[in-house]
Amino acid sequence: MIEVKDLYKSYAKGKVNALNGITFSVEEGEVFGVIGPDGAGKSSLFRILASLLLPDSGIAVMNGHDVVKDYRKVRQIIGYMPGRFSLYQDLSVEENLTFFATLFNTTIEENYHLIKDIYQQIEPFKRRRAGALSGGMKQKLALSCALIHKPEILILDEPTTGVDPVSRKEFWDMLGRLKEQGITILVSTAYMDEASRCDRIALIREGEFIASDTPQGIIDNYADILWSVEGTRMSALLSALRDHAAVKTSFAFGDKIHITVTEGLQAGELKQYLAEKEFGDVRIAPIKPTVEDCFMALTNESYE
């Protein structure tokens, strides 16, 4: 179990606030996701929980061990995978794994069952230097090294950043299997679509949790009227939508624009307004919100 209370962290002698009173808990065997953009404070939080960074104030406890007072014990019970690939580039796959197993007085053979599903995919390349691996294989090697000592808690800092969609899906499937083994998993990501793979999530912005619930719970609390708008000249279309008095917010989502509107506005009215601005082929439809829509709405509220 992870318990965090009133965690603060700043840099540059207090001029840059990274964490502003973070409080949350994670139950044993739970997959808890911290979702937010780059610079929101995810890595600072995870480095503190991994006992690699001292907080300014607050308490963080990992399965009963304080990350400051009991840091040696904390390091024995966690597996940590940082955002950047940090294994030894000049060592082979097998040499990296052996090295990390030795650090924890164990062997690859002793805990092979923990990493079997993951390691089997890179085992054919076990003599290849880690620096020569593809992004997806580096990710699998790093996870294997984080698991080799049979940790109680796994801390993964943006593990799927820069990895192709297929490898991202494979990685989350692996996390699902690890959860079945009773490992508590704390994972951060900037990909909002990965939120649905977590039991609970927290949305983080500027060092603060702006919401925390199950992914569906976050979505169920969305109260705005949400429409999707498709058309040509997306940049100009976005500007035109933002100029309409009844459009509350508008954000680009891939090849579509998601807008929230005031109650009473009809899609036909908006279509006519856009036609007058020479946007002829426009498609407008009501849609269900995603976690990303919820994040944008909560961010917008906090700035108002």
Structure, explained:
The strands form three sheets. Strands 6-7-8-3-9-10 form a six-stranded mixed β-sheet, sandwiched between helices. The protein has 304 residues and is an alpha/beta fold. Helix 3 packs parallel to helix 5 (135-147) and helix 4 packs antiparallel against helix 5. The model has no long low-confidence stretch (mean pLDDT 92). The chain contains ten helices and 14 strands. It has two domains: 2-214, P-loop containing nucleotide triphosphate hydrolases (Rossmann fold, 3-Layer(aba) Sandwich), CATH 3.40.50.300; 223-288, 2-Layer Sandwich (Alpha-Beta Plaits), CATH 3.30.70.
CATH superfamily heading of the largest domain: P-loop containing nucleotide triphosphate hydrolases
Instruction: Report the total helices.
Output: 10
CATH topology of the largest domain: Rossmann fold
- Per DSSP E runs of 2 or more residues, the count of β-strands stands at 14
CATH architecture of the largest domain: 3-Layer(aba) Sandwich
Count of spatially separate domains: 2
Report the structural category: alpha/beta
Radius of gyration: 22 Å
- Model regions low in confidence, pLDDT < 50 over at least 5 residues: none
Helix content range: 25-40%
Q: Can you tell me the CATH class of the largest domain?
A: Alpha Beta
Notable characteristics:
alpha/beta, Rossmann fold, 2 domains, 6-stranded mixed beta sheet
SSE blueprint:
Layout: E1 2-11, E2 16-26, E3 31-35, H1 42-49, E4 57-62, E5 65-66, H2 71-77, E6 78-81, H3 93-103, H4 112-119, H5 135-147, E7 153-157, H6 165-180, E8 184-189, E9 200-205, E10 208-213, H7 215-220, E11 225-230, H8 234-243, E12 247-253, E13 256-261, H9 267-276, E14 283-286, H10 291-303
Parallel strand pairs: 3-8, 3-9, 6-7, 7-8
Antiparallel strand pairs: 1-2, 1-4, 4-5, 9-10, 11-13, 11-14, 12-13
